[in-house]
Amino acid sequence: MNETTKRAAPIRDARTLGLPKMLILGLQHMFAMFGATVLVPILVQGYGLPLSIQTTLFFAGVGTLFFHVCTKLKVPAFLGSSFAFLGGFSAMANMDTGRYAAMAAGEKLQYACGGIVVAGLLYVALALIIKAVGVHKVMHFLPPVVTGPIIILIGLNLAPSAVSNASTCWWLALVSIAVIVVANIWGRGMIKIIPILLGVVVPYLVALIANAMGATALDSLGNAVPLLDFSGVAAADLVGFQPFLTNFSGSVAKFDLSAILVMAPIAVASMMEHIGDMSAISATVGENFIEEPGLHRTLVGDGIATALAGLFGGPANTTYGENTGVLVLSGVHDPRVVRLAALYAVVLSFSPAFAALVSSIPSAIIGGVSFILYGMISAIGVRNVVENQVDFTNSRNLIIAAVILVCGLGFTGGLTFTVGGATITLTSLAIAAIAGIALNAVLPGNDFHFGQSANADTAASLGRY
After folding, report:
1. CA distances from 274 to 79, 148, 290, 341 (A)
2. What would the pLDDT profile of 4-33 be if each residue is shown by its tens digit?
3. Domain limits of the chain?
4. Does 259 have pLDDT greater than 80?
């Protein structure tokens, strides 16, 4: 083996590079996950729910470390905020029936997080079933004809909020869109890995200059306001605890059947994302992590990390495709550098000033990023269907997809009913998921076999851009 070949070989033990390079590699992984991870609480805050950036970063880091313990320290994956649950947060913010009528936003968030806890436990349940009967039998009931349209709906249901945010300052939103497009299509190296982060940072710098020149945006009432407001940054402490430590009773999850039925069905889509990412990481590293340490272990790690985050007021976690891209870029496949990124996230979570600085990002920038992000979620659902070669000349498949899409788009206000004196509300996405899974189970002719269709294991990720 010549020297060139040796340099091209992947590095599986980063300690051979020395501590300084290891620290930098961990920093690179942190930057890769950072933009998307903090974007989730920013978007949820835009819906009116006070999801904490500090809490999000803390449980992204802690969740990643826990995932590594569950997977025998073998899988180089980072667990960041899941975009799949944004539709659930949006639906919870808009719920105003039954006990949710006139409920404070903070309490609604607690109930939403209760639903996330249950969603995380569904991961564990699936892991136990997979351990008992095998992954192929389980996935037979969750084929792409069901999961693809559900993923499509997640993006479509969020589209109006992207337009609403972008409309506060269209030119700034367009700058954000342009930066993401340029970085993603023409970028090289690290630039191509972090287009979402650049789509926030570059327009923010532009907004700083424009704000100094007197540029304005529109608030929710249509009034002209400054592009940037740093009052929150000035009032925040440099170092401080996360909200769940300072206000435990106001942060810990609460449980209600309506909220569970809003959030928990989304686990169907996010579990497909997890399986797709595990396949992608396995292919990148050259090791079959689905077999060893096993898909059941990765699902348990992801599920308990999600449940733990939800229990204390954080968003659901998911394995991040962005960090898989960093593995390809760097050629360093050592999980230790990913764990360093997790430690960095935990450290940053103890800075309220940093969280306030992130919260000062103009709504228009969030809208611009959302234009790409929400559309890409739907496009990935389309890719899920196409790459798995779902045959829509088959009337069975056509009926399942049609019912899912009409339920998801037609029940705009959800479906509210009373059972035993309790008021239950199903959102459009929950109705669509239940209908799709039920139809797939009842209608004859399910010929999907996990791992045997073209690209069947790699088409489900929401974390790849």
Report:
1. 10, 14, 11, 20
2. 444 457 888 888 888 888 888 888 788 778
3. 24-442
4. yes
Angle formed by the axes of helices 428-442 and 86-94, nearest 10°: 130
Contact (CB, 8 A) for 77 and 67 = yes
Whether the predicted model's global pTM rises above the 0.85 cut: no
**Residue type (1 letter), 71:** T
Residue 248: phi and psi, rounded to 5, are -60, -50
Q: 51 near 313, Cβ under 8 Å?
A: yes
Which residue is listed with tokens 């936003």?
Answer: 105
- What is the CB neighbour count within 10 angstroms for residue 74? 15
